[in-house]
Design goal:
4 copies of one chain form a homotetramer. Chain A is mainly alpha-helical. Helix content of chain A is 73%, strand content 0%. In chain A, helix 2 packs antiparallel against helix 3. Chain A is globular. Chains A and B meet through helix 1, helix 2, helix 3 and helix 4 of A and helix 1, helix 2, helix 3 and helix 4 of B.
């Protein structure tokens, strides 16, 4: 098996679910729950470490983090497939929104401005 | 702008953060928090609807769901970049683990077996 | 040990953290991460079951669910203590907000109205 | 209205849901989703700030944080009520588990030992 694109991952996941008769459980609602559960496992790895230390992972933790990231991608691709949403187009649109929402010259280098600016423009 | 691969999204996000001097905030720890916050916005859209109705989205909700999915992808790509993790390789590895963990003939068509099977083999 | 109020739980948790020198890790930021990780473990128990079946828990699951609920309460009390926030007063205030936000005669019996009403009044 | 105990909060929430005919939506599954969505709103307030700054909240943020904490408590009490789980007893049991799992003399003052110790004894 070789995954080289979101499409190949999507196709693989379709077969995987079909072979197990799991489409019945893969409603967007259920998949959103599965996705956040994986996101939380990611968060858990970082909860007691300092931010500036959080890129330094021991081998075992790094391997677990890789698994959580893979799980998030898997559920993200699966829910997008079920909803007929094109992730790349959605990302493009969001990047355009973000470019307008956070103009570089207005928000540069400040976490404070970051959120304040968001608040004012939401 | 055109996003056609995870690599192009990654590159775009690098420039976006650099232009705003936001790399200082983009620790894996902080990014994991941002990711789960977006995952929760996704969950919120589905919390009061029935599972079998959850693929039926009104236009406004559909548009919001698309944004949340994009945000999740964005933070997922960003944290993977910061950790030097290849998402496709991670997905490949996870799919192989899942194939061993959930043999089709053992878990077919049962949510009960689904989790039970997992419990016994974790 | 007997926990009979949020105050006694708070006091117990203070001693527990002090005895382990864990206050250094118990920043509101870190505690919010720990709390959501526990909330996700709760979600995980319900992700593949139907809503109307979700109150029917096998003994083993029920026992795990109890632990997750306890963990959520523990981190909730701990973060409130660290921020000097009175949970009962906060709940009182929120109930008053909700009573205004969701007038019974306007939103009765409809999940659709439920969220729509919220959207319009947010 | 005055909330002075988890019981009075529980009773208030029962009436609130009944008046709106919302019990039909308040399955444990749905309530777990609502709870994690609120937990994520809490996380969001802390995602770009340093841990040691995260107790310093501006008035507006503090007021929002209070609301999120109240919402978490509300859904926690509601789901416990729906499942017939006594939160104080659950907390007592969990504190006893934690006392055995994290002996003060073994884990004192080290986040590293904190998680390592947990890994070895899970």
């Amino acid at each position: 098996m070789s995954i080289e694109s979101l499409e190949s991952l999507r196709d693989h996941l379709r077969v995987f679910a079909k072979d197990r008769d799991w489409d019945q459980y893969h409603t967007p609602k259920n998949l959103s729950m599965a996705l956040i559960a994986e996101a939380a496992e990611l968060v858990e790895h970082f909860q007691w470490v300092e931010g500036d230390q959080s890129h330094l992972l021991e081998d075992k933790t790094r391997s677990s983090v890789e698994e959580e990231l893979a799980d998030i991608l898997i559920y993200l691709v699966r829910i997008s497939d079920k909803l007929g949403i094109d992730l790349y187009k959605a990302a493009e649109r969001k990047l355009e929104i973000n470019a307008r929402k956070y103009p570089a010259d207005k928000v540069r280098g400040s976490a404070k401005k970051y959120t304040e600016y968001e608040d004012k423009h939401d």
